[in-house]
Amino acid sequence: MPDCDSHRVRGGQVKRQLIAGVAVAATASAGAYLLVPEASGHGLERASYETAAKTDVCPAAKRQMRGMWIATTQNIDWPSKAGLSPATQRAEYVRMLDTAAARGINAVFLQVRPASDAIYKSSLEPWSQYLSGKAGKNPGWDPLPFLISEAHKRGMEFHAWFNPYRAAYSDNIAALPANHPARQHPGWVVKHEGRLYYNPGLPSVRDHVTKVIMDVVNRYDIDGVHFDDYFYPYPGQGTKFNDTAAYNKYGEGRSLANWRRANVNQLVAQVDKAVHRAKPYLKFGISPFGIWRNKSNDPAGSKTNGMSAYDAIYADPKAWIKAGTVDYLTPQLYWNRGFAAADYDVLVPWWANAVKGSGVDLYIGQALYQIGTGGAWNRPNEIPSHLAVNKRYPEVKGDVYFSAKQVVQNPLKVMTRIDEDYYKRPALLPLIKGLPTRPLGPVKNLRNAGGTLTWTGVPGARAYAVYRGSGNSCELVAVTTRSSFRTRANGAYQVTSLDRLYNESRPVSARVG
């Protein structure tokens, strides 16, 4: 996603995409939340778990990822600027989540590590400058427990988003905080076009990145680990990335390109294994650049004519799918329908086919930040029409929007259109094959008191699903974190408990009226 690396964000969040080698400007607080209005192949660590949910009430089209990215780098989304008080930072976040909940969002992907810095208390890397205004300065609180808790209060998943290889936006190592890994281990980094990058070819770098991630996994109640699209640096000024010494030491006769891809694949596999060994229920996913390869370079590629992740930044999502080292992919399809070099209508079926039968979930990264920047992006129905395309492919299990700021601002009322046309009903999060499927017990003491359903909460429940109707002749009307639901419509109702992965319990029924 565009966070001021080789995809530059300026002014109105205009992203510069590399197409055919040319840069083109493509231009309700804590408590319970009804997410829409009520009136409308891993290893042995997970092999012992069941592979299918026991219960799925009203299964038709009720599970969908509806996520948003929250970028902290450059203060794109949160906090709105550096140096705000903890109270102001908390208030901004609560307002953002309240609006997101009202717009149907059920998952957030928050950037906890923009550039080898931390939006949380860490003994491994310095505090992020985007909190206090100065790299390494304690902001006066640890935001992460609050950020996670507020998402969970609204029935949202919280995915911790890490940039694995960016070390600093400046190549001046001496200016970094004393505890910055690049100062402590200058041999880990490569100076490249004014910035510092960790060298993906070094085992010590892969170990450090994994250690940072596992520190968060072990200390915080996150729901997932997430990588963005930055691996080896994007093509910029054409400067050679100077990893020659590492290649000479570790290349083992492979071509430079194959060695670089193997380095990335190795990190992905290493993180996947460590995350699921520690907490088998966590999700690990990546949001790759939207073009794997072009058909002109590879018969298996897409009918596109743009920069390719495989060739330019040495990211190979098809390898991750084949190896089963990711739970989901969220390719950034940041181009409009009909765009000649990278047509949305071409790329969605390509990605759907890539994951078909693999057990890897597919969500589409949507360029909400592009709305209003010109051309096709001035059409209020551009992104809503993307969701219509997605419905043709059962492999597409939802969307993630970049970024939170636009979800709140609702440019050209696009989120309103999406809510009215596609998010009229709430959605449970998709169940990913291979993750634990052990539903909680059912709710108890379900009763109707004058149009308000109440029940006794279930220990460990993330939320509750409320259905109107009986059997499979029903519809999901609410996802709530409370043990009650107010309705004005008479009829049969069913309530299920949801665990943290949104596995459902056996339904319990009651009648209103």
TrEMBL record:
<protein>
    <submittedName>
        <fullName>Family 10 glycosylhydrolase</fullName>
    </submittedName>
</protein>
<dbReference type="Pfam" id="PF02638">
    <property type="entry name" value="GHL10"/>
</dbReference>
<dbReference type="GO" id="GO:0016787">
    <property type="term" value="F:hydrolase activity"/>
</dbReference>
<keyword id="KW-0378">Hydrolase</keyword>
<feature type="domain" description="Glycosyl hydrolase-like 10">
    <location>
        <begin position="64"/>
        <end position="373"/>
    </location>
</feature>
<dbReference type="InterPro" id="IPR003790">
    <property type="entry name" value="GHL10"/>
</dbReference>
<dbReference type="InterPro" id="IPR017853">
    <property type="entry name" value="GH"/>
</dbReference>
<keyword id="KW-0732">Signal</keyword>
<dbReference type="InterPro" id="IPR052177">
    <property type="entry name" value="Divisome_Glycosyl_Hydrolase"/>
</dbReference>
